[in-house]
Design goal:
This protein is an alpha/beta fold. The chain contains 14 helices and 11 strands. β6, α7 and β7 form a beta-alpha-beta unit. It starts with a helix and ends with a helix.
Length: 360
């Protein structure tokens, strides 16, 4: 046998012998299975479909090296216990919204939305370029959780009410489903906020257990059937001007991934974070037009005195929250600086263009 050919044969034989020596369990260890628990009903438009696409994309692009199994709200863990499940390692991954964790971390809502805060583009810019992601990592890191922005339901509506709201006094005593800091603002306006997972909103509103409820935008609200439970649909969604969803990943599970799979997970979250708001913008506009065509829903603006009172209370709530800890203060200061920056830019950019379109 020629010397060169003999060397190639020996190299092939050595490689084949090494591969054959790997046991089946050793090869199997290269394939991982992650459980993904969500706070959403299965395939709920918006966050539910975002979570499903995220699981499918990671599984497909990793060629099965990382298989992500989706578990909708209540299938594996309750909707509002997703963060705890990821933190404890019960599941490797979750998909939810940061505002649900305000009882555990007062500043968590900043990473979904705060009243009268950043809109989707500004929120994403703050996370990506303005230092928000590093603060988010620090906040969740204490619990062994790595967060990623993964989807966005866009600018939200003000919610569904069983009767018309015409003045500030009308808020007194109302039982309203509104989580996060918006709920605290409502409490200070005299209402009684409650936190319900999305799957329970329709039942509570239709039976009168609550007097009003917000969820997301027209597209997702319509899918839940909220237009059949109440007729007054308020705008704008001052309580959540942004709807950032989050992928929660066990820091240990993430660290155990090889670097290429870490990059793949990160990239898949980024894809959904771009697709989510584009899809929501299109479908919300179409759903709102459908409500108007049907004529069974009364679109109603928040009374000016309610908006003014809510904005003042929001400022007080955020100021108090910032005094909780040094990290809470740093988050507030970073977010506030971003908001000031974008308001100035918006006056000559987005807001000016919108006014010109309307007035034209």
């Amino acid at each position: 046998m020629h010397v060169a050919n003999r060397r190639r044969f020996l190299a092939f034989a050595t490689g084949a012998t090494a591969a054959a020596s790997l046991s089946a369990p050793a090869i199997a260890r290269e394939r991982r299975i992650w459980r993904l628990a969500t706070s959403w009903p299965r395939n709920a438009p918006g966050p539910g479909t975002t979570a499903a696409r995220l699981a499918e994309r990671i599984t497909a692009l990793s060629s099965g090296r990382l298989t992500v199994e989706l578990h909708a709200a209540g299938e594996l863990v309750p909707a509002l216990e997703v963060f705890d499940a990821v933190s404890a390692g019960t599941v490797e991954m979750g998909h939810s919204a940061a505002l649900f964790w305000s009882g555990k971390m007062p500043s968590a809502p900043y990473f979904t939305a705060v009243p009268f805060g950043l809109m989707p583009e500004g929120h994403d810019a703050w996370l990506t370029a303005g230092g928000g992601q590093a603060l988010w990592d620090e906040l969740y890191g204490t619990f062994g959780v790595k967060p990623f922005a993964a989807g966005n339901s866009g600018i939200q509506m003000g919610g569904w009410y069983r009767r018309r709201i015409e003045k500030l006094e009308d808020m007194k005593g109302l039982r309203l489903r509104m989580p996060g800091l918006g709920g605290e603002v409502l409490r200070r306006l005299g209402a009684a906020p409650v936190t319900l997972p999305p799957g329970e909103i329709f039942g509570a509103l239709s039976t009168g257990a609550i007097d009003g409820a917000e969820f997301l935008g027209p597209w997702q609200d319509r899918a839940l059937g909220l237009q059949r439970a109440a007729t007054f649909y308020l705008w704008p969604g001052w309580h959540e001007p942004n709807g950032s969803a989050e992928a929660l990943i066990s820091a240990k599970a993430y660290a155990d991934l090889p670097s290429d799979l870490q990059q793949l997970v990160t990239a898949c979250c980024e894809v959904e974070n771009r697709r989510g708001p584009a899809e929501a913008e299109w479908r919300n506009a179409a759903a709102l037009a459908q409500f108007e065509e049907e004529g069974t829903v009364t679109l109603h603006p928040w009374p000016t005195e309610v908006l003014r009172a809510a904005r003042l209370e929001s400022e007080a709530v955020l100021a108090e929250l910032a005094e909780t800890s040094a990290l809470d203060r740093r988050i507030r200061d970073s977010y506030s600086a971003a908001k000031t920056l974008f308001l100035h830019w918006g006056r000559v950019g987005r807001h000016a263009l919108l006014s010109a379109q309307i007035d034209a």
